[in-house]
Design brief:
The chain is mostly helical. The chain is about 60% helix and about 5% strand. The protein has a five-stranded parallel sheet, with helices on both faces. Helix 9 links the parallel strand 3 and strand 4. About 5% of the residues have low confidence.
Length: about 625
């Protein structure tokens, strides 16, 4: 199995990125600096941060003057104030780090006390007037009255609260010039003074999983970096999905009226001085990655690293061609134990047969790739437990899992056809003959006629209609029950686009679609999973569908299939939208118009106008 966490091994070959980032943060002339490592969910950002830390250690020789550590922003999620939580976590890392000089630690201890005062101030805001009144009057009773106490603890409570209130009064309220702004300034000055020690060159903080946090926590973490912690000798590397950060900013600072400004981008630019984008892996990269993961499953850690070194030295990674199964077998053979070599070669053959099809659906995402392989391995083991070893054809199992990944609706349809299996699956056979015929007729099988599904039909084993698939579908029975789209599983960025589409006007829709196009492929698919059923029900205005149709060529077939199911009569107001859609894809819209004519969704006169005959 492949664990869904940051890898210590560079299977994604991100080492060049890690080298560049490490060179920058190790250069003392560049700090204070905040680098943004941006990539979609599952792109390997955490793995890259691990590599950066390794590279920093290599370049500095683990010098005590360079301190590098990771803070997981997601751990702050339960705190009232993520800003204070980050500051405290960073200071405690410095306090507990053996490389930090004692003189610096003394300053850190003082700063931790100031953070405690910030906590008290935050508590005052949440509790309200009693704490503030206590601080102003130097009387702890109002503060105590705001919280339940027992007879046994009231004496200690009075003393404790009184001490804290006095400290808060002395440090924050006794001077009329003291304010939140000056508190920030004083903390920053003290922090800079603490790090000015000659025995420290650089403090590098890697912040991971920021995009897992709630919008408020994301903003507070970024503000803590900018307002409190951005001082000489400090470098931050923040790993996140930029779309999620932009969504958080728009939630925190929504646009006023029709005033259009890219506040989310400007905000990020103020915080992040150097953005570095991790590109989505190409289809070729994902195909190779699938094979590398199989090799990893049958190697020791040391042998797998040696195998990857061989691959790098051979130039296979930068080759334009996908690595074939035979090359992988030959390259890995000396690192695979003899007793598992047969099983390894069998799995490599199976994955090689489907990798080109499934890779396109994995959207360049390493995490999705791991999940697909884990599903395959799990189902394969279940098959052995249910039916015995070698009782099922694992090539058929793999092929069905690919269809499930490509299109769950077609997977369900194949199961329904399989229920009528006699000597063969006649429904599937009829569909395959029609879809793969040379006459181009699609009939009732348009969903099976997409290039990806045709490629799936042609991959081995091709004679699927000759096998009763009951046992295979039993292993995947949890996927055979159709359910509504789980909106909660969508990312914040995808939900934001859906919300904006729901409130769109003709004047705003173009800008919304432009932001829609900037989403990751995974997020786009999530948005379409919600939109397509709504389009079929006539719940989406045609001018919105028009903009989506024009901008998303890959989804035009599915959009037309959804539009075919519309029951409402097409009105004159939709003519301009349909003309615009026909201008970018005449064939698909003409086919749609033919369907509408047969179902009386549109009249011939309107069709003639759309086609320019009148």
């Amino acid at each position: 199995m492949w664990l869904d966490n940051a890898s210590e091994v560079d299977i994604l070959f991100y080492e060049p990125y890690a080298d560049v980032i490490a060179d920058i943060v190790c250069n003392k002339t560049y700090n204070p600096l905040t680098i943004g490592v941006f990539g979609v969910w599952g792109a390997g950002k955490s793995t890259l941060l691990n590599l950066v830390q390794q590279k920093v250690d290599e370049k500095t020789g683990k010098s005590k003057k360079t301190i590098c550590f990771t803070i997981n922003a997601w751990t702050f999620e339960g705190y009232e104030d993520a800003k204070i939580a980050l500051m405290e976590a960073l200071l405690r890392e410095l306090k507990e780090n053996k490389s930090v000089p004692e003189k610096v630690k003394e300053g850190v201890i003082g700063l931790l006390k100031r953070v405690d005062y910030f906590k008290l101030a935050t508590k005052a805001i949440s509790v309200g007037a009693p704490i503030v009144a206590s601080a102003v009057t130097m009387n702890p009773i109002p503060a105590l009255m705001s919280a339940p106490v027992t007879v046994e603890t009231i004496g200690k409570g009075v003393a404790s609260v009184a001490d804290n209130i006095k400290t808060m009064h002395d440090d924050y309220l006794k001077d009329s010039e003291e304010s939140v702004v000056s508190s920030v300034r004083k903390f920053k000055e003290e922090f800079a003074k603490t790090l000015s020690d000659d025995e420290i060159d650089n403090v590098i903080v890697l912040i991971d999983d920021l995009d897992r946090c709630q919008p408020d926590s994301i903003i507070e973490t970024l503000e803590a970096i900018k307002l409190f912690l951005s001082v000489p000798k400090m470098s931050f590397i923040v790993a996140a999905d930029e779309n999620v950060i932009q969504y958080a900013i728009r939630k925190k600072y929504p646009p006023v009226g029709n005033y259009a400004v890219n506040l989310d981008r400007e905000y990020i630019e103020k915080i992040i001085q150097l953005p570095i984008y991790i590109p989505e892996l190409s289809t070729k990269d994902i195909e190779n990655y699938l094979l590398f993961l199989v090799v990893q499953e049958y190697c020791s850690s040391d042998n797998f690293n040696k195998f990857l070194s061989d691959v790098k030295e051979s130039g296979l990674i930068i080759s334009d061609n996908v690595i074939d199964s035979q090359t992988i077998k030959e390259s890995a053979s000396k690192y695979i134990d003899e007793d598992v070599r047969g099983e390894f070669e069998n799995n490599i053959t199976v994955i090689s047969g489907i990798k080109s099809i499934v890779a396109g659906n994995l959207k360049g995402n390493p995490r999705q790739t791991k999940r697909f392989l884990n599903t395959y391995v799990t189902k394969k083991k279940l098959a052995e437990l249910y039916y015995g070893k070698d009782s099922l054809n694992i090539k058929i199992l793999a092929k069905l899992l690919v269809l499930q990944k490509l299109d769950s609706d077609l997977f369900i349809q194949l199961n329904e056809w399989n229920k009528r299996f006699t000597t063969e699956n006649e429904d599937f056979k009829k569909m395959k003959l029609e879809v793969l015929s040379d006459d181009g007729e699609q009939g009732n099988y348009k969903s099976w006629s997409t290039p990806t599904i045709i490629k799936w039909l042609q991959c081995e084993p091709q004679d699927l209609e000759k096998t009763n698939l009951d046992k295979y579908f039993y292993l995947t029975r949890e996927s055979l029950k159709k359910s509504e789209v789980d909106i909660s599983s969508l990312s914040g960025a995808a939900k934001d686009i859906l919300e904006r589409i729901g409130n769109a006007t003709q004047g705003l829709i173009r800008g919304i679609i432009e932001d829609f196009e900037k989403l990751s492929a995974t997020d786009q698919a999530g948005v379409f999973s919600v939109l397509l059923p709504k389009i079929a029900k006539g719940e989406i205005k045609l001018y919105i569908t028009r903009e989506i149709f024009v901008s998303f060529e890959a989804y035009r077939e599915k959009l037309c299939e959804a539009l075919e199911r519309v029951n409402e009569k097409i009105q004159v107001g939709g003519i301009s939208s349909l003309k615009a859609m026909r201008n970018v894809d005449e064939t698909k819209i003409d086919n749609l118009l033919d369907v509408w004519l047969r179902t009386n969704t549109i009249d011939q006169k309107t069709v003639d106008i759309i086609k320019g005959r009148k």
